[in-house]
């Protein structure tokens, strides 16, 4: 019985840790001051365009 409880506890602990890793973000709750990080460069767009063709 103790072995079953230990296995269930370990499984629950792993699930909680995985959920914490997926939900973590260093910028959580902050408003973006600039949107420059979202702009794609023309070189990368042209590369993707040529790759699709």
From TrEMBL:
<dbReference type="GO" id="GO:0005179">
    <property type="term" value="F:hormone activity"/>
</dbReference>
<keyword id="KW-0027">Amidation</keyword>
<protein>
    <recommendedName>
        <fullName>Adipokinetic hormone 1</fullName>
    </recommendedName>
</protein>
<dbReference type="InterPro" id="IPR010475">
    <property type="entry name" value="AKH/RPCH_hormone"/>
</dbReference>
<dbReference type="Pfam" id="PF06377">
    <property type="entry name" value="Adipokin_hormo"/>
</dbReference>
<keyword id="KW-0527">Neuropeptide</keyword>
<dbReference type="GO" id="GO:0007218">
    <property type="term" value="P:neuropeptide signaling pathway"/>
</dbReference>
<comment type="similarity">
    <text>Belongs to the AKH/HRTH/RPCH family.</text>
</comment>
<keyword id="KW-0732">Signal</keyword>
<dbReference type="GO" id="GO:0005576">
    <property type="term" value="C:extracellular region"/>
</dbReference>
<keyword id="KW-0964">Secreted</keyword>
<feature type="signal peptide">
    <location>
        <begin position="1"/>
        <end position="20"/>
    </location>
</feature>
<dbReference type="InterPro" id="IPR002047">
    <property type="entry name" value="Adipokinetic_hormone_CS"/>
</dbReference>
<keyword id="KW-0873">Pyrrolidone carboxylic acid</keyword>
<keyword id="KW-0372">Hormone</keyword>
């Amino acid at each position: 019985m103790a072995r079953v409880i230990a296995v269930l506890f370990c499984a629950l602990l792993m699930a909680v840790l995985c959920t914490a890793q997926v939900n973590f973000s260093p910028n959580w709750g902050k408003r973006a001051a600039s949107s420059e990080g979202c702009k794609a460069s023309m070189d990368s767009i042209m590369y993707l365009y040529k790759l699709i063709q």
